[in-house]
## 1
Amino acid sequence: MLESLSPLWGIVLGALPGAIGMAALTRHYGKRLAALREQQQAALHDRQRQCRALLDLLPQRLYRVDDKGRILFLNRPMLQDLGIQLADCLGKTASDLYPPELAEKYQADDQRVLAGETLTIIEENIAPASGQKRYVEVTKVPVRDAAGAVIGIQGIYWDITARIKAEQALLLSEMRYRLLSDLTSDYVYSCVCGPNQESSRLDWMSGAFERIAGYSIAEIQQRGCWLDIVHSEDRVRVDQHLSDLTPGQSQTCEFRLIRSDGEIRWIHDINRCEAHETLSGHYRLYGAAQDITERKQAEEKLRQAARVFEHTVEGVMITDASEQILAVNRAFTAITGYSEAEMLGHTPRQLSSGRQDALFYAAMWASIQTTGHWQGEVWNRRKDGEFYPQWLTVSAVENEQGVATHYVGVFSDISSIKQSQERLDFLAHHDPLTGLPNRLLFSARLEHSIQRLRRVRRTHHDQSLLAVLFIDLDHFKDVNDTLGHTAGDELLQWTAQQLMGLVRTEDTVARMGGDEFTLLIEAVAEPDNAATVARKLLELFEQPRQIDGHEFFITVSIGISLYPTDGIAPDLLIQHADAAMYQAKAQGRNNYQFYKPEMTARVIERLQLEMSLRRAVDNEELIVFYQPQVDIASGRLIGAEALVRWQHRQHGMMPPARFIPLAEETGFINTLDTWVMRAACRQARIWRDQGLALPRMSVNLSVKQIEQSDLASLVADLLNETGLEPASLELEITESLIMRQTTQAIRTMNGLRALGVRLAVDDFGTGYSSLSYLKQLPLHRIKIDQSFVRDITRDPNDDAIVRAIIALAHGLGLEVIAEGVETLEQAAFLQQQGCHEAQGYLYGRPMPAEEFIATYRYWLGRNPVAG
């Protein structure tokens, strides 16, 4: 066995010295490798120290975190910002170093970088170590391993606080400059100008220009330059001004701009020309312009004031604070007779008349010193010694400290005005015909007498009365109608003289208007004293009166009221005396009546209204209005309805509903209707003579006129009197009136139709028609009442009634017209149903003749004019 092992052992034993050598070699080189490694490690540490030293020297803040946000590296500036050592922050996160709100923001940014995004942001934060606010620019990039996976974040940021603050300061400075430029009334601009004005363009302009010119700067830049809105009359001068500029030169110029709204503004421009930096043949124009419109206007006002001062008709004098006269105008010389040379250096006291005492002037100067103004009437003296009244206004002129430095007196000679005023005062309080006090003065004297008597009764227990007598001449209208107004005026003057001779000096006689007079009897012991005066008045008129060679009798009606039993106010006493006078007329005239308390206000009002209505024709208070009637399809004027209106002297325009029933009750309706018919026929003939043909004039008839057996004769006389063709007149009779007086109505209407007059039934459908009578009536037209027209488009019942009336009219061969048409829908419905004529507010309200002709002259001119 040994023999068999001996070769192996030989090998082993032979190799043993080599292995021992290899081990020694390994130990040898291991030591060298360790030494080399130590050298490399030392070199690496040295490079790391050098690299860190370099990074610590950088002003930028550097840091590195892993994918969990844990800090791996911070350079010295970063550590200084945090105020901690590197060892104290390695492994920590932003939450450990920053406030929660900043930490959350940083972590949110880090998540975007860990997702592969590179961020560069500018943000505001606070350095933890110093607490100072700063602005930083941060760049964060992802750190990847050899496989490209993001394993951390490398960050760098710069403190740009100084730059941001500089930019902010520059922005603030520019903003302040622009704001001041915009707030000032001036504007500044810069233009680039070429060889010709067309090549000029606006570089910049302050916002104040927009307020001055009304154009936006963008609009001006589109035009090229703001010089484009210079007034055409100034443009040549401005262009020449600019063409004369050379670099380094400054000039000023005044011209006008035309605002966007057309207003003209004056501009004072200061500009400087500088050579352009790069463009040959071009230059820059820098300018500052001021709106001097107010100054120009002030200058013009001064020029105007100077012209006014010299040419005004009022005298003007200017004094200094010590009242020494500094200047006077031409009118001053013309009024006073003193020249300017004679007055300079003197005081206004040289003009004093002596009529005003020291207290007057003390009060005047007290007002001037308190309010800076005084105005009033004074008497002064001309150079020739004549005294005259003047209206003087004195105003103080104050400096900036509120101290009066000058006084301006403006006066006018009111001598002629005073004379006219006295005349007007007399006319305002007296009747021009008789010279007696009028209503105004009578009321004033009555008020004064009441106050005086009230004091006497209170202090002396005196039971005296005052009496007011209201006197009206009976049938005075007959005098005017038969003998003329001259005779009537003579009668009124005679009456005034008789009344003045009857009363005492302390009593008052007045003419209230027309043929009405009043007496104020003072200190009446008992009512019978007033009755005695009334009886004397009645006796005055018992004898016949001779006027213009004619002898006639005239009587008076007298009403009496007493203070205080019948009233304590002047107007009430006059009113009650007036009411009593009407009662005297109602008792047969030529008598007197005391006011009775049982006369109610309603009765008095009715009585007054009745009397006023009876006098309305004589007093020319009645007016005829005309309402158009038209063809619905064409709008052509086919006629007009005459409607009476009453312009009451005291109550104004009174509606017909207030006085027509009263006229019917009192029997005055015949006179009223006849007057309306005559006025309407006369007006239609006047228009026809003017070439303006009205096809027909419609006039309403009352039941009283229908009852007249001679109505046809009356109408014939009116047609002959006015010259109007019978066919142009249409008389309207209400349905209820026809049915009430059917036999007489038919007879009267036949007589009217024989004349050729047209006849119509008014307000058809509102009465109780008898078809048997209706077919007998000689009618031409039926008028549908407005009560049915008003709701025809809404009420089926009115719809049916109107259809039936139209069908009935057509069946009887009659024309039909609808009244009260106010809407286009109503007109369309009526036309569709066969009613072709209408009147109502849709086509025109009742209006005076002048307004009617002005409105419808076109259609009147188109109608043919008959014979």
## 2
Amino acid sequence: MTRNPRMLASLGVWGLMLCGWSQPSYGADLSISEGLASEQLPPKTISAGQDSFVTDRLKEIPANAQPLTVSGIWLETDSLETDLPSETAPVVLDLVDSGLRSERDRVETDRVEMGQVETDLAGVDQVETGQVETIRPTTDQIEADQPETNRAETDLVEAGQVETDLAAKDQPETERSETDQPETNRAETDLVEADSSETNPTEANPPEADSRDADLPTAAVPVGGFWLNPALINGERIAEVRVYLENPTEDAEANGRLEQQILAAFTVQAGDSANPLFLEAGLQRVQQLGEVETARYGLYEVQIPGEVVVVLAVRLAPEVVERPGQSGLFVTGDWREFPNLYTSDRATAVAILRGGLSNFTSSNTWFGQSGLLTQGNPLARDPAGPGTYSWFDGYLELGAAGITQVGTQPLYVYGGASSLVSATLQPDLFESDNRIFHALEDLYAGVIYGYRTETERLGVNLSVGRQDYRISNGLLFANGAGNGGDRATILSNPRTAFENTVIGRFRWNGLRLEGFYLDPNELSLIDSQTKYLGLNLDYDSDPALQLGLSYIHVPRSNFSYFTLNDTFSRQGLNVIYPRLRLTNPLGLDGVWLQAEYVHQWNSNFDMAANGAWGQLGYTFRDAPWTPSLSYRYAYFSGDNPNTATFERFDPLLSGGGPDTWIQGSNLVKIYQNSNLITHQLLLRTRPFERFDLSLQYIHLSAANLNNLGGTQALSFLQSSHIGQEVTLTARYNLTRNFLLYGSGSVAFPGSAVQSALNSQPGPWYFLQLSVLMNF
């Protein structure tokens, strides 16, 4: 039979280029399985560089040719028009034409510059001819018994270093066209889908239209993780930073290098305080990487309340691309970029837009005796009486923050400013008039110097001004500002920034040392003029173990301690504060254990106060809704009037949330974290990452019957039983930027409160429904 000379010539050229006949490649293969025409050729595999070439070759196949199989990436028989004669032997088409490929950006390819040859086949003789493009086949095209060593290895670029892993190391130098190329022109990737068994990658992983508002892939979400709206973040500790590659390469080592490159660009790491500016700036740096197609982050609460797990979900680009020099709303005019105002390879500027609207309802407030339980409280100018009250709180914060590199060194300056307006409509628990207040919230500036290598990380961060600061989960420092009174929104608590701070942070690998000066933004009506100096040391290089130690000193304060005979000043207070946190100890998956201890003394008089607490929790990872159950015992000493030493614990700026140190939505209003013993049981379920449901029981009792310094009506107790409270809380993320929060509590007075009120009042009911916004 007469051969087609043009067809055979083309096959001959491809055959010379790919001499490893029996080794399947990672490209789209044209496999001659049973010979061509009347001449039985040995089985061969050729890689189709362009669909037009394959189309032309198919049209030239004689009508009586032997069966031919064309294999590629998708089983779509109508995606390539061949116009073959009807007599042609059966042909299975599994290729996508160039037009369809351009529409489906999920095709993962190795891009090779003109004149450059891809060398990811074992035993390949390379030639410098034209442009070669290979498309990775599906797993159906790879024989099950194919040795792993015959697969192509991945070429990766990490921080300017190109990783090459060629099988044919004995090739002549004149044939190694890839190794002769400059690093900037080399083939960058073989970024393939994580699940190669999917026949349609477009359906399996559709591109994100708006990466800011989309949920992270299910596989990226930590087990039992609740997606924290940034509106809930107030300097919480970052427990872990994870990188999830949505479409990893088949080379585990290469994936590890990519993850390290992404973490280096993100810069935020475990042990840092959650700061929206640094998180957004880190995200923009990751998106500037040529290997990255899209990136987004999610903040999750997993096991321990008050800690944040950051997950970076990254989709790798099919080829290394050059990013635009600038992006952001100010550059593109596209409001979908908001809050990213401006981003370049050296700077990031973001907008601050936060707000909240809450409805509160309280019944049998103050157990029906507001005059008695608010006696001596300067904020309670017209407290709520018997019956049911309902009111609205709202606030809106506007501002901007930015960070930019100085010169070519790893030196950065940053800063931020915002203004906050707050309002309360209708009478609340303490006052009966409407109030609206506007004031500066954030105004800070800082400088950062640091570097990161494969083996170590060093960073120095110095900042000053109005900003947030907290240690651990807020036992001693939570909010730096007062709310209520003329500022309104006493329960929404939107103001958190200290009036003035100087904070220095030094990090070396897993150690972080902080030095601070803090001046709280107290309400003018009760401003104690207290200032704080201190050092804080954290160790967190091991995700399973966190250690902390703090020292705090009060150089100035007008706040007073009271005893039956004397009055002492807080000025001169010293605090030592060690901490321990274990996650999954001894390989017990789902278990967490944490404990903290506080000892206080004063340089000016005899004082010895103590606080301690421990919590044990377990997450049922394999159970529906991933429930977690925890128990916490906390002790804060009271003053024994029979000793010369003052022993009442000073809670300083204790706070946080209902799961941390707001102990009881109602009872906390009459009894704070001093001279107190609490038992807390917390059951939390998470049907899915957007929805969180928790049930809390808390029991409060006094450590000492002498409670002088607390609520005046409860200064001298007849019983140690303060009360108990049950709270049901639901949190639902409407979107990434809007959170729906609902909570209901019922508090039952104990015998100590009943004795003080000289009655047996019914329960105190409280409801809250809030919509929180954060950009």
## 3
Amino acid sequence: MRSPFSEFIFHLFPKLLKNFNAKRLRSRLTHLIWRSLPTLFATIAMIPMVHFVVLQPIDFWAYNSFTSWRGDRSWDDRIVIVAIDDDSISKLGRFPWSRDLYVQLLQKLEQAHASVIGFDILWSEASPADQQLVAAISRNQRVVLSMAWDKAGQPLQPIAPVRNAGVAVGHILKREDADGIVRQIDLQIQDIPTLAVAILQTYKLTTATTLLPDLSQPLSINWTKSVKLMPQVSFSDVIDGKVPDTVFHNKIVLIGVTASGLDRLVTPFDRNPPASGVHLHATVLQNLLQKSSLAIVKPIYIWSFALLGSLFISLILPRLNLWTGSINAVVLSGLWLIIACTAFNINYWIEIAVPILMFLLTGFAIALQERWQMQRSLKIADAQILYKSTHDHLTGLYNRSFIENRLQNLLRRQDEPSQNSDQYNLITIFWINLDRFKNINDTFGHPIGNLFLIEVGQRLRESVPDSTSIARFGGAEFVLLIENVATEQDAIAVADLIQTNLQRPFIIERNEIAITVNIGIKFHQIDIVSDPYSCDVSKPEDILGDADTAMFYAKKLGNSCNKVFDISMRERVLKRLQLERDLRKAVALCQDPNNQDHQEFLIYYQPILSLSDMQIVGLEALIRWQHPERGLVSPVRFIPLAEETGLIIPIGDWIMRNACLQVQSWHQRFAKAKDITVSVNLSPKQLAQDDVLEKCLSILQQTKLSPKYLKIELTESSIMENPDFAIRILNQMRQAGIKIYIDDFGTGYSSLAYLHKFPFDGLKIDQSFVNNIHKNSNGAEILQAIVSLAQSVKAHIVAEGIENLAQLNHLQDLLSEDGDGQGFFLFRPLDVAAIEAIFQTT
């Protein structure tokens, strides 16, 4: 007898062997190696290029270009250059000069209280005036001198008396790259720091604010200024006293030769004419002072990025066509160039040659791979296309294309009717819509929603005859084509069975889901015709459209309803489509600035009066549609259509822009209108737009209307569609100065529960409450309660729908201190001319 453990192993091991698919594993491994080959090819090709320094010119170009693209940057105002320029040599004589000129310069700088003085001039030979120079240096006590090396590598130091007088000595050796540009400098050679470091060490003694870098590592120079923009003064001007002492006060002063042909130095900014050594030391000193020298990214990181990018192109990015790999390589190369340029702007130097060439070589190798594999891929794609062209990818059901082709074949059938009584020519189309399927996706997620659709397809298969073609037309809509139906009642019985089966709850991954469906039914009798191309034969899209129309009317009846198509439905749909086309045309005209004379939309303005003095304090903008054939179309007809089609967004923008423009004009033209506000209704779809606030502010800016004169009216239901988003946007509107009013207050289900959360300035009491003031005993009490509620939250009140004197008197008593009124008894909506006539009266 086996033990329980051995029984477990006995049952588990065969199952593991059964599930282990070695062939699949080998296939995946082969695929991975195949896609990795471009990276391997690029890496092997890169090694000799790097070894023989073939790529260095590319990095040199990048360094020069990044410097030029970035342009000049701020200069450290602690550094001043005294230039031995062409003018100085012309005035003071041929260079080199006698020591007395430098003595005079030191005296000038001593008087100006310069912080540190650095000489990019080598005094390696004795002179009769050395004692005077030594005395001047000693008096200053903060003079840094230069040294160099001869051709034999021996140090060339300043003569001993001068060297001993200076506070420090720094070397002036420069390192030029193959293209002649200086990009790096050795901060220390044979324990001798560079001139800039020696100056910085001296400067540190006076300020104690600057830390020195690691002197064992070369400094990558960050060229930030062209020579002509570096702060410098002429040597002769300083000697002649033309430069004020404030230029040198507490500054680091560098003295060096800048005259033509004496000390040439090429920088990314300066090639012809070149810079000089003193400019190099000034730039290095600035890099040290500001800690702005270029930080070099290590080659190991560059190679890592290059390999990862190459693998990313090879393994992860899709290969949609022959050139996708090359395009990806070019894009990634461009991205790398942008990254390197951006890093350069923050003082990091990243080599570009290795990654970019790696990416391009990878893209080239991928192109070769794809070309070789193209024929094989096309064969596989043909088989997939054949299936996908007739099936839905998610459920495996047929798709629209298959149903339309099948209908076309049925409609073109010319076979003689069979003598068999089982042969029928009646076909039926079911258009099935799953109600509120979006809620399933939002609640359970799209993966559950997809599994649910698959399960719906399975139940449909179980509910229909074998002669039925089942298709999914996308989203939550299914279409069934039933052939050879005996009678219409048989088809309706199938629809009832579908309703019964789909009403049973679905269990998807332990989630119970219930749903209702609406079914539109279209019957079509196939007529046998002699001419297969007769115009009398119906089109598949017409039959499907009729079934869709029947489903639309089934949804109007409620949940779980079936509706058979009749011809009157098509006529109503055609009228609706015609109205939609006309509405789109009207919207296009209102958006075209060249067709302002042919506008079909009009804005009427209904005055809002203060109940205390019966003066007009505001206007509500109301749209009207002057149709060229239908005449004045009621907003009740076209506003719901505009909401459904999304046209309400451009219409609402047009109303707000033109209303603000009109009110601004009245402010300027009429004294009585200078403080008039305009109220504009904001639809739920407008409020849901991410840029609704930007649009409002842009319109106010374009029309030059102050935000305090604009009132936005919106219903509670529009806020409740997405309360968190709406409250955030409305708060921003109020902060911008726009007034927020809740329209039709009291009719929404959320009035009391959410009133304290809504950001608003006023409430418009719905006209149903105003009309009931005297109709029953509770009417006045309800209105009083609403007013008290509004006053408790300090909201301004506007009463809508005032239609008689009794209502007006009651509201005046109720809102005598602060309240407005609006209604047909006061003013009906008026056109622009009528409003202007009111404003012109005195």
## 4
Amino acid sequence: MDVSRRWCVLAPPISFLVHPPTLPVAPIPNVFPGIRHCCSVPVLLEWRMLDPRSSVPPPISPAACPAYVDVVLPRRLHRPFSYVIPTELKGKILVGQSVIVPFGSQLLHGLVIAVHSRLPSGAPGRGLKAIRSLADASAEESLTSSQVDLSRWVADRYAAPWGQCIKLVLPPVGHTGRIQPRYFPTKQGLTCLSSLEEEGEVESQLLKRLSRRRNGLSAATLAQPDKSPVTRALQALIRKGLVFRRDEAVIPRVSRAKKDMTKRVRPALPEKLALDLDTCPPAGAASWQTTVGQAVSQGTFVSLLLQTSRDTRWWYLVKAALDTIRRGRRVLIITGDVENASRLAESLANAGERPTLLHSGLSARDRAAAWLSVQDPEARILVGTRLAAFAPIETLGLVWVDGEDDASLKEEQVPRYHAREVARRRAVCDRALLVLASSHPSLESWSAAQQGEMILCVYRDPAATPEVQVIDRKHSARGYMADTLLSPPLCDGIRKSLQQNALSILYLNRKGFASVLHCRDCGAMPQCDGCRVSLTFYKRNNHMRCHYCGRTQPVPDHCRQCQSLKLEPVGSGTERIEEAVRRIFPQARVGRVDGETIRHSADVRAFKRLLAAGDIDIVIGTQMLFRLGLHSQAAFVAVPDADAGLHVPDFRSAERMYHGLVDAVELARPAHSGGVVIVQTRFMDHHAIKAIAHGDDSLFFEQEQAFRQMLRYPPCTHLLKLDVSGTLEPVVAEAADRWKALLHAQVAGSEGQESKEDRRPVVTQRFAGVSGDAKKIVILGPSPAPHAMARGRYCWQILIKAVSLEMGTEMVVQTLEILERGPRRGGLRFDIDVDPVAMG
């Protein structure tokens, strides 16, 4: 998808006559060599918006001094802007540098993406704004061409504004700096120091002071009252052209000591994992090392899909990383959560390496230190969350994505990139080995392996799996399970585990005591005023909470609709399960792990200390359990309601259900050590339940693939989710209908349709060169989103299914540009999510 250039001008696109005697103007640059500008006749100037697809700038002569630049700004804009290079900065501007430019009434940081020695074709001869100054950034903070290209790729791949994507490749501290003026002497000011003494002592002393400061003086240093002699002298020197002002960014600096400290971190590794790494190679270790060695030595892009348990794939990771380093190349490891990143770094530290850790859990200064330290050739391994996918680490030989199916790898805010796909792009550009590792691969990766696009490596030890029992809730004791979800077999399993002084785990991915409070007389349920969703009931804190906006309300004593007193909790969450377990097993020590009990990393460490000391007998929790490192530690694991979250309006609900069940099974010991897993469900014939019961992934993947193929959902096609939101529901619905009409016009290839709102022609095109299958586009909607109102904003959705991602994103961006030129009543906003992982 091409990205157009928009010229930043001082006036709207108009044509007019300029007569020098009546309207003084700045001289027009001589863009035609050999032709002199004549000021005795009127000059016709035309300023217009251009598209580089129809007009390409002329090639740059190496000997020419660039005078114009294209700059990408950190705003929701899909096009760069052109600026003039001022005289004092000519020869100092390079691609990848950060500059400060005027944009409307603001001064913004921008990134230079192109330089031109001549006025680009079609640009206005005058009216272009000039760069204000270079940003106060060191050479090591400048972007390389590969970083600029990566940001451009993200913008194209995810139909995101390029200015937003530039932020991803900038150093983390680059977004928090403020603008501060600094003052410098001009060349003329330096040459007339002696003659200036006759004009004024204050001006002379100030100019001499500035001449001795190589980096100039800041406005804070020269701060004086408005009518002080120094302030008046400074303004006089500026008017005479002897001093100029430059606005620079104040960026927190990271000391070299801080960077070195980041690299010296060597966390201790638990003894159990250390022994596994050295003396207990898993099955298939020899074939794995051979596969990795051949892939890294080829020096070409190779993609592997590794499916095995967590501890086993970490063993494989360490071996692959060491092999890559021995061959003189570097390693990038990406995972979905902070805790997992820290454990991976510990594994590599135990193997004698010194990994750099980069994730959002670090302070801003520590993230900056890690970002800068990876540019050092001695930094051979970088471990981090999705932020690390954009770190400036070069000469990659191995790119490893651990837990490639984790939804945390998908960014929820603009630009909505997926770190797995960014990792793939980096591996392709660096001709590195890409390993996507998981206990349960995503359907996209599994499908790619089935089609030969990836090499599938499955390493399993049947002896390491626990015994799995599936219980049909429909035929169990209804009265016993209605309140607690604790069936007699489940209670028996907990009791046996307590007798053995072993750990029991109950997994239920629902917080709170009950999903809703329900009126038995009229059926009404309390809802959030800002989101129009049912409020979750928390019994311990005696309040109701919205899981979207976080608002809380006190528990009512009667129904607001019919004034009935018959309000009862419906559904079970972790808090309700905990209450039932404490009632049935009063002597057991019970711990709960969910968003209410684990809010900070300190809470995680405290809970781990309790587990290590043996002070907890039963753990009840949501999917947060899987981030505590409890794999293969429980004698008994139960899933009281395996169907939770299955029936939601999301085509990935079955896949998420299956992944949660696989993770729960991994928490149990092997069967020969007494490990037992009980799964309770009402859908015994569901393909996810059958796959868990038989320990056969293919039962799930093949059936799910067939469903996706029939309904044309990913990975069989690309999906684009278009959200239209605002505070006025009729305006939102009308805008969604208009977007749909523009999309249908694009697909139909209509040209010159008149838009009723802005009377501008809707420019559409047929996508030449695209085969018949790629031209198939399905547009669904618009309709209210699954949660039609969230945080006081109404939301409508349009879904686009496109075989050709390039065609789909180009069509959406073209129509979005038309919509954004129209009125924006009610805070109207348009959002694009390419290949979303959640439909809510």
